[in-house]
Each structure stands twice: as C-alpha cells, then as structure tokens.
Design goal:
Blueprint (H helix, E strand, L loop, with lengths): L5 H19 L1 E2 L1 H8 L3 H13 L3 E5 L10 E5 L5 E6 L6 E6 L9 E2 L8 H16 L7 E8 L3 E2 L4 E2 L12 H5 L7 E6 H11 L6 E7 L3 E7 L2 E2 L21 H5 L1 H6 L11 H8 L3 H25 L3 E5 L2 H4 L3 H17 L13 H8 L15 E4 L3
Parallel strand pairs: 4-7, 7-10, 11-14, 14-15
Antiparallel strand pairs: 1-3, 2-3, 4-5, 5-6, 8-9, 11-12, 12-13
Helix pairs in contact: 1-2, 2-3, 10-12
C-alpha cells in the first residue's frame, strides 16, 4: 500500500503532466490543466520545474491567427537521462532511457556470480555500469527505474512471489540508494513498468487492464491514467489464479512452462528464442499453444467480468509465434461469454457500441446488457 503524502501527491501530479506532454507532443499550460484536472497554478509550477531541469522546453506557438501567440510545452529528448535496471533474470541488464522514452542501444549485461549474494551482484553490476557509461554524466541523470519479476512491497523493501528465490530476501532500495542519492528511485513490478509505458503514455482510455504473458504471467489495472495501487501491490496478479485443472495460470500458459518441455539432456532449460529457433515445427509447441488458448480466453473473460475494462492490452512473445493467436483466442472468448451470460461479445472489434445500442438489440430490460454498458471492450495483442 502506498502512503498518501504531500511528496507522493507532487510526484503523481508531475507524472500526469509529463505523460500528457509526451502524448500530445506540444501543449499549452491551459490545455495541460484541462486534460490532467490539475489547477493551472500547480501546472505552471510543474512546467517551470521541468524547464529548469532541462526536461521540457517552452516556446512560442507558430500560428497564422491574429493576436497574441501562446506558449507550448514539449519534451527535450536528449539532455537528461533515466537509468533502467532490469532484474527479470539473474543476469541483470542496465541501460539509459532518454526523456522521449527511447532506449539507448548500448545495454550493459552483468553475468550473475553464484558465489556472491544477490545484493553483492547488484552492487557490482551498478558500479561497473556507472563507471563504463555514466562516469561523466551522472549530473544529467534524473531518475532510476528498476523492473522486478514480482510485486514490490514498498514498506518492506522486498519483492513478493518472485521466480528468483534470491531476490525475495534482497533489500533493493537499501542496496541502490548509496549509488543514486540525488536521483528519484522507482522500483516496481515489470508488468506495471511496461503498463506505464505502453498503456498510460499511448492510450487515452480511462479503464485499461494490461496483461504480460512471458516467463511469468501478471497484470496491472489502469484507472484514469494511473496504475492502481493495492494493500500489498498484488492487484492484477492474474498469474496466481487457477485454471479448471487446478494449475496456476502461470504454469498453464507461461513461457516458462513451454520452455521446460524442451529441457536439454544436461538439465538446462532453453530460452524462448532457442525454442522458436530450434523447435518451431515441433508438435509439442503447437499442442502447448492449443491448450493455452482456451485458458487465456477464460482468464480474460473473468478479468472482464470482474474489472469491466474498456481495453485489455496483452503483451506476449506468443503473438509473434502464432499470428492466429488473437483470432483463436477471440473465438474461445466469445464462447465464454455466450455460455455464461448469453451475450454476443464483440471483444475483438475496434469499434464500440453504446449502452443504448446494446439495450435496443438485447432488450431494454435485459440485465445481461449491463456488462456492455460502456461499449464493447477491445483486446490489443503484441504491444512492444
């Protein structure tokens, strides 16, 4: 649970303003206040701070209209940077993100040393990265983003339900703060980090569910442009839900389960890229996807009934492996709704119907039309 403090409110307001500038490209202070719901005075203070820090610039707007020209605010892409630390695997990856959210190509990868503790490995990785890539530019670094493979419990400074046992006992904030005392340090689950980039910054919907199906399976709930926080940061953890067969979703449809089917003679598990390269025509691969599709459809049906989102975003390497994945899943999803509520759900349509249209088609007094009161949801596959 995130404590509501004056500092958190200021940070959230700054994130809202930055996100809106990013979405629009260039925007006036008045429009920023209107779109974010933040007072014009507060928006002005935030814009002034962003300009002073070289994160944004403010210039006169070119216009052919007669009268006084207004100012517009835009992001300065390359003066300031954000350090990214990816802890999804034991071999950490570190990189630099520009303010236009483009990742610089020269990523640093640290090979995990099993003779050292997790914290020692992380300290060594950060030290080497700073020495090689940021020695003269530390002053231009405004923040640090850390992606972890599991819910991050801020009050306890630990990762919950991690696939990496050593990470569960590691104190990440305590380990990283000595390196980044002057920067904002943000630690969160990988799916919530991805959702911030692919959801709030690119889509305008107020109600989004973001699903990440990769090594693990997890999700994030978006409400009015912000990832929803919960008591222990576990809201949206769909991977820990159970299928009809009694398996956890993560075991039934995650990439880890697929890769374990092709375990090597020495006991090592190949990466997803290796599986695709060497076993693309293997019947075990297609069989795994065939059993996963109905489970995914049922999962999204349950998510839809529970959260009633306008949009579900699914990020998964599976979409590259099987171009028909979304279509096949859509057919199963349609059957789920027809069987459970008698609704012909238009889940994969890009157009939306109003509640009045559905009430007319289904009958004004039909309670089953309540599900689609905000229009048909759309599911977007293969982001990123």
């Amino acid at each position: 649970m995130q404590l509501i403090t004056q500092k958190n409110i200021k940070l959230q307001n700054m994130m809202k303003v930055f996100q809106e500038i990013y979405r629009q490209g260039s925007i006036s202070r008045q429009t920023l206040a209107s779109k974010t719901g933040i007072s014009l005075m507060t928006v002005g203070k935030i814009v002034d701070q962003l300009v002073r820090c070289d994160i944004a610039s403010e210039e006169k707007k070119d216009t052919t209209k007669v009268g006084r020209k207004g100012n517009v605010v835009s992001i300065v892409p390359d003066r300031k940077k954000i350090v990214l630390i990816d802890l999804e695997q034991r071999d950490f990856r570190l990189g630099l993100l520009q303010m236009d959210l483009k990742l610089k190509p020269d990523l640093y990868q640290h090979q995990y040393d099993h003779n050292q503790s997790y914290e020692e490995n992380l300290r060594n990785a950060v030290s080497s990265f700073l020495r090689e890539q940021l020695e003269d530019e530390m002053g231009n670094t405004v923040g640090v983003g850390v992606c972890v493979p599991g819910p991050y419990y801020q009050q306890g400074d630990r990762v919950l339900h991690s696939r990496i046992p050593e990470l569960s006992s590691a104190k990440l904030k305590a380990t990283l703060c000595p390196f980044f005392s002057d920067q904002i340090l943000y630690i969160d689950e990988d799916v919530r980090c991805a959702a911030q980039l692919n959801g709030s910054l690119t889509l305008q919907d107020d109600h989004i569910f973001y699903a990440l199906i990769s090594e693990g399976v997890s999700g994030a709930i978006f409400y009015h442009g912000q990832v929803l926080n919960s008591a222990y940061s576990c809201a949206g953890e769909i991977g820990r839900m159970y299928t009809k067969s009694g398996k956890m979703i993560e075991e039934a449809v995650g990439i880890g389960g697929l890769c374990r089917l092709f375990t090597k003679p020495d006991g090592s598990v190949p990466s997803f890229q290796e599986v695709v390269a060497n076993h693309r025509e293997d019947p075990r691969l297609s069989a795994y996807l065939e059993q996963a599709i109905p489970e995914l459809a049922l999962l999204f049906a349950n998510v839809t009934w529970l959260l009633d989102p306008k949009t579900i975003i699914v990020e998964t390497p599976y979409s590259k492996l099987d171009p028909q994945l979304s279509i096949n899943c859509g057919r199963h999803l349609k059957r789920c709704f027809c069987r459970s509520a008698g609704i012909l759900c238009r889940s994969f349509c890009q157009t939306r119907r109003s509640s009045a249209q559905h009430a007319t088609r289904r009958g004004a007094g039909d309670p089953r039309a309540v599900f689609l009161r905000s229009g048909a949801i759309r599911i977007i596959w293969g982001i990123g």
